[in-house]
Structure formats: C-alpha cells, structure tokens
Amino acid sequence: MKKFAALALLLTLTAFSTAARAAPLQLLFFYPGGQGSQEAAQPLLDAFAESLKKASGGKIEATVTYLSDTQAGLDFVKAQKPVAAVLSLDAYLQHAPGWGAKVIAKTLQLPSGDGTDRYFIVSKKGAALPTSGPLTLLSQRPFSPDFVAKQLFLQLQGMQLSIQPLRNPVGALRAVGMGEKTDFILLDQFEYANVMRLRAAWVAGLAAAAESAKVSSAPVVVFPGPGSAELATELQKALVKLGSEASAQATLQELRMKGFQGAQGL
Prior knowledge:
This protein is an alpha/beta fold. It has 9 helices and 13 strands. The strands form 3 sheets. The protein has a 6-stranded mixed beta sheet with strand order 2-1-3-12-4-13, with helices on both faces. A 5-stranded mixed beta sheet has the order 8-7-9-6-10, sandwiched between helices. It has a two-stranded antiparallel sheet with strand order 5-11. Strand 7 (134-139), helix 5 (145-152) and strand 8 form a beta-alpha-beta unit.
C-alpha cells in the first residue's frame, strides 16, 4: 500500500510538471523609461522566444512581454505573475527584493559586452559639473536622485540633485551641441556611443562632463514558486547558450546585447 501511494504521488507530480511545462512561461523585459512599446517590439520579442526555445532544446517555451511604464510593469508582475524577468538595474534594486526574485544571469550589454553598463552625463564641450548646490539632470528614465548619486555618480552625493524627464533626447542634445542650451543629459553607454558616432556638426559641441563607475548590466531574475529552482537552471543554461547561437545574433543585436552570462547576484 505504501509503495502504491508513493507511486501515485510520483505520477501526480510528474503530471503536474508536464502540465506546467505545456503552458508557455511568462518572461518580462521591464525597463522603466525605455524606448519603444510592446506593440512595436512584439516581432522582436517573438524572435527572442523562438531563439530561447531552440537554445533550450525545446524545453522552454515563453511568451515575452516588454514594458517601459513603471506602473504597468508593477501591475503586470502582480497580476500576471511572470516566471522570470530581465530588469533594468534601477528596477531590480528598487523592486526585486520585495518580490523575492533571485538573480540567475545578466545581459552582456553592448557596447561593452562584459556584463557591465556605464552612464555618461553629457553637456556642452568644456562644461564642468557643479561641485555643490543644485544640479538638474535630464533623463529618459525615471531614475531617483538616490540611485544616480549612490550607484552611478558618487561625486554627486550631498548635492541638491533632481532628475527631469527627457522626451526628445536628440533634440535636447542638438540644442546643447549647438550652444543653445546648457543642460546636463544622462545617457547610458549604448546611447552615448551612438550619439558620438553621428556625423552631424552639432555632435562636435558635445562632451562627457562625467562618466559613471561601472555597474551591473540588466539582471535576469526568476520569481519564487513551484519548480522555480529547476526552471532557473534550465533558463540560465539556455540564456548563456544564446550567445553562441548563430541564428540568434540578429535578435540579440536588436536587443542591444551580445548574449547573457550566468550569475548568482550582481
């Protein structure tokens, strides 16, 4: 009787695992203030899901969502309960501890491709950051002053720092480069590299007034739940393998990365 009960339990658990695998897992890309929309990104997200499925040997089938609105992302996590997420560093530090999410990998973000990111404060060539008093930075991302001063630019601690939303980055940069404005604009390493490669005359009028310390690129987390440990192992392996899959390279490039590396934390 005990053997029969044990067998029945094993069959039940196997059936549950199989059923769980039959439904695509929810994977979220959550980048508050990021560019683009879910609708525009859907073909790219579908291509990523296909590449992930191939890299996992068919074990991982995912529905991938991209959200750049902070509240929409928080609501999605609460209502949809995704299995895993790729989070911007600021989103991870602010929200992941409360979710109990565990880091399993990091993006190899371009152009560095080494698991780190770096930020630049761009202004008129020759301009210097103030060393005291108030300072306003323009940013596409809803960074908190604490995140900027404690994680990115330690020299700004103690200043009266404010972050204002930036709606038209190219227009703002052009105005600074042409000497029409004296704003300080916060860019990540990918944006900075792309701007400085432009051949427009106004780019010559720009320079980095400050360069941040290297920080972690976007972490990949799994949320707590049944089977999360097994899934974490399989997902980590598949993500790491993506970088060596020739068919995934175009998709990864569009996502501004060359792949993923395994990680147990930042």
